[in-house]
Design a protein that fits this description.
Layout (H helix, E strand, L loop, with lengths): L3 E5 L4 H12 L8 E5 L3 H18 L4 E5 L2 H5 L4 E4 L5 H14 L11 H25 L5 E4 L4 H10 L5 E3 L3 H18 L17 E8 L2 E9 L2 E2 L4 H7 L3 H4 L1 H10 L7 H4 L10 H7 L12 H22 L14 H11 L3 E8 L12 E9 L2 E3 L8 H23 L2 H10 L1 H6 L2 H14 L11 H10 L19 H5 L2 H9 L5 H10 L3
Parallel strand pairs: 1-2, 1-4, 2-3, 4-5, 5-6
Antiparallel strand pairs: 7-8, 8-9, 10-11, 11-12
Length: about 525
C-alpha cells in the first residue's frame, strides 16, 4: 500500500514544494498519499494547486488532499511533517518588538533568547494537541518529523510529554559543512579561483564530518579531508577567507576561543551567548549587514513578512513557470525525504538529527535533545555514541539546555515562575536585563500572546494586574542596532527576481543552499 504522509502547516510555498519534490524523486514513494493541512485556506489552496501541477507534469501516481481539519489530514498517516509557525507573523512580531523595549536585540528570536523561549510556549500547547491527534487517528507508531522551531524545545515536548516518536530536523549542519568544504578549497588552492589551471574543487562529499551538540549550537568536532583532520586548521582558513572573514565574525571568534566551528549562522548564534549583542553600540562590530542572516535586527521577521506578502503577488508567475522535475539527479537535501526513503526501502541514510540524548553525548544530560549523527535503514533510526564533547563546547550547550528544560516544563505546566526563571537563565536576556525587567517583560509578552497560550489562561489576568500597578520598565524607543525597513509589495515588484529569492530565504536559506549545492555538484 502507498504510504500516507501528512503535512501540518503545508501553506509554505517554497519549503513544502522542495520537500515534496525531494520525496517524489524516489521511485518507491511516487504513489504516496499526501495530506496537506493549514489554517490559512488561501495559502493551502495555492500550494495544493502548484504541487498537483508538478505531479501531473511528472506523471507519478501521488495524490494530494488539502484540508483545514487536522485530524482528517492525520487519519491513517504513516509519517507526519510539522512545518508550522504558531502565532504566525503576529506572534513573531511580539517576540522581536517587546524585547527591544527592554534592550534585547535579536536577529531571529525563534530558538533561544526571550523570543525563542516565548515561541516555545506557543508551540508546546500546539505540539501536545498534534501529538494527541497523532496517537488517536494516525497509524500506530507513526513517525513525527518536525522542522519547526524552537527545534529542541518542540522535540523535547513531543517525545517526553506527547507520547509520539519525534525527530527534529534542521539545515544548520549542512550549511556549515558546505562552508568548511569551501574553506578547505580556498586553503589548498592558495589564491587560485574556480576555472584557473590547477584549481582543485572541494565539495561536501569530500569532507567527512562529525558534528554534535544541541540544535543551532552543534560543533564540528571532526572534519576529514583526504584522510587528514583539518579541525585545527579551520581558524586560519575562516579568518583568511575572503567572504567568511567578514560575514562570520562571531562564529570565528567562538572557533578561536573554543577550538571548534559551530553550526548556526552569525546572526542566529549571536542570540544564544551573552557576549556579542548585549551592548547596542557594539553589535555592529560583530555582524555583517549584507544579508539578514548575518545579524540584522529582526532580520528573519522582515524576510518572513516580505515573503508572505510576495507569495500572493508572485503565485501566478510561479504557476506559469516550469514545473518541478522529480528526478534523483535533481534531488535536494531534505532530511525528511531521505528518512522516509530509508525506512521504506531499507537504503541507508546518514544525517544529523535532533533526538533525546540517552547517553549519546556522555557529558550532556540524558533528557536533553541533542543534534548528532544518526543512521536510518529498514530497521529504524540508530544513534551511535559520540562520547564527550570538548569541555568548553559542552559548557556552552549545557547553559542552553538548562534554559530549554525550564522553558519546556513551564510551557507544559503553565508555570509562570519557571518561565521567568528560564528567561533569567537565558545567556543574552540575563546579560541585558535585571530580574525586575525580565519579570515585567515576560508578563508583557504573556498578555500580548494570550490567545496562543491556553496553558496560562489562569495566569494572564495576574500578569495584567502586575503590569497595571508596576512602573513601566520597557521604555526604550529603538528599532535596534541594525534594522532594515520591510519592503512593500510595490518595492519588491521593482526587482521580482530578488523578491523571489528573499521569499525563499524565509525558510532559513534552505532553498538557497540546495541551489548552491546542486550548482557545485555537492
Amino acid at each position: 500500500m502507498a504510504v500516507k504522509i501528512a503535512v501540518i502547516g503545508a501553506g509554505s510555498l517554497g519549503f513544502t514544494r522542495e520537500l515534496i519534490s525531494d520525496m517524489l524523486a524516489v521511485p518507491e514513494l511516487q504513489n504516496a498519499k499526501l495530506a496537506f493541512m493549514d489554517i490559512n485556506k488561501g495559502n493551502l489552496e495555492r500550494v495544493r494547486k502548484l504541487i498537483e501541477r508538478d505531479i501531473k507534469h511528472n506523471k507519478v501516481g501521488a495524490t494530494v488532499t488539502a484540508t483545514t481539519n487536522r485530524r482528517e489530514a492525520l487519519k491513517d498517516a504513516d509519517y507526519i511533517y510539522n512545518l508550522t509557525r504558531i502565532g504566525g507573523l503576529e506572534g513573531f512580531t511580539t517576540d522581536i518588538e517587546i524585547p527591544l523595549k527592554y534592550g534585547v536585540d535579536q536577529c531571529v528570536g525563534d530558538t533561544l533568547c526571550i523570543g525563542g523561549i516565548m515561541y516555545g510556549q506557543r508551540n508546546a500547547a500546539a505540539i501536545l494537541d498534534f501529538c494527541k491527534d497523532i496517537r488517536e487517528v494516525a497509524k500506530p507508531n507513526a513517525l513525527f518529523l518536525s522542522y519547526a522551531n524552537p527545534m529542541a524545545m518542540n522535540t523535547w515536548v513531543a517525545n517526553t510529554y506527547g507520547g509520539v516518536d519525534t525527530i527534529g530536523l534542521c539545515h544548520g549542519v549542512e550549511g556549515g559543512h558546505w562552508q568548511i568544504a569551501k574553506v578547505i578549497e580556498s586553503m589548498i588552492n592558495k589564491g587560485k579561483q574556480e576555472g584557473d589551471k590547477g584549481f582543485k574543487a572541494v565539495t561536501r562529499k569530500d569532507v567527512d564530518i562529525i558534528c554534535a551538540g544541541i540544535n543551532h549550537q552543534t560543533w564540528y568536532i571532526q572534519a576529514l579531508y583526504k584522510g587528514r583532520d583539518w579541525t585545527d586548521r579551520l581558524l586560519k582558513g575562516f579568518s583568511e577567507h575572503p567572504v567568511y572573514s567578514k560575514t562570520e565574525k562571531i562564529r570565528i571568534d567562538l572557533l578561536k576561543r573554543f577550538g571548534y566551528y559551530t553550526t548556526e549562522s552569525n546572526g542566529h548564534v549571536s542570540e544564544y551567548v551573552p557576549w556579542y549583542r548585549k551592548r547596542t553600540r557594539d553589535i555592529s562590530k560583530w555582524i555583517s549587514k549584507d544579508s539578514w542572516i548575518n545579524g540584522e535586527t529582526g532580520g528573519y521577521l522582515r524576510v518572513c513578512t516580505e515573503g508572505q506578502n510576495w507569495f500572493k503577488t508572485d503565485f501566478p508567475a510561479v504557476m506559469k513557470a516550469d514545473p518541478a522535475e522529480y528526478a534523483m539527479e535533481k534531488r535536494g537535501n531534505e532530511h525528511g525525504s531521505y528518512i522516509i526513503e530509508a525506512l521504506e526501502t531499507g537504503r541507508m541514510y546518514r544525517g544529523h538529527f535532533n533526538m533525546p540524548n540517552n547517553g549519546c553525548i556522555t557529558n550532556l544530560d540524558d533528557d536533553a535533545i541533542v543534534e548528532v549523527p544518526c543512521y536510518v535503514d529498514g530497521n529504524g533510526v540508530s544513534v551511535p555514541q559520540v562520547g564527550d564533547l570538548p569541555l568548553g563546547c559542552a559548557a556552552v550547550c549545557a547553559a542552553s539546555i538548562n534554559v530549554q528544560r525550564l522553558a519546556v516544563e513551564a510551557a507544559v505546566h503553565g508555570d509562570v515562575n519557571l518561565l521567568k526563571q528560564a528567561a533569567m537563565m537565558d545567556p543574552l536576556t540575563g546579560a541585558v536585563c535585571d530580574p525586575k525587567e525580565i519579570s515585567q517583560m515576560v508578563d508583557e509578552m504573556l498578555v500580548a500572546q494570550a490567545k496562543w497560550l491556553p496553558q496560562y489562561r489562569k495566569e494572564i489576568p495576574k500578569a495584567k494586574a502586575r503590569l497595571k500597578r508596576e512602573k513601566p520598565l520597557g521604555t526604550r524607543k529603538t528599532q535596534g542596532a541594525a534594522r532594515k525597513k520591510t519592503k512593500s509589495v510595490t518595492d519588491m515588484r521593482k526587482n521580482a527576481a530578488e523578491a523571489r529569492r528573499n521569499a525563499q530565504s524565509a525558510d532559513k536559506a534552505a532553498a538557497t543552499r540546495k541551489k548552491q549545492a546542486r550548482k557545485r555538484k555537492v
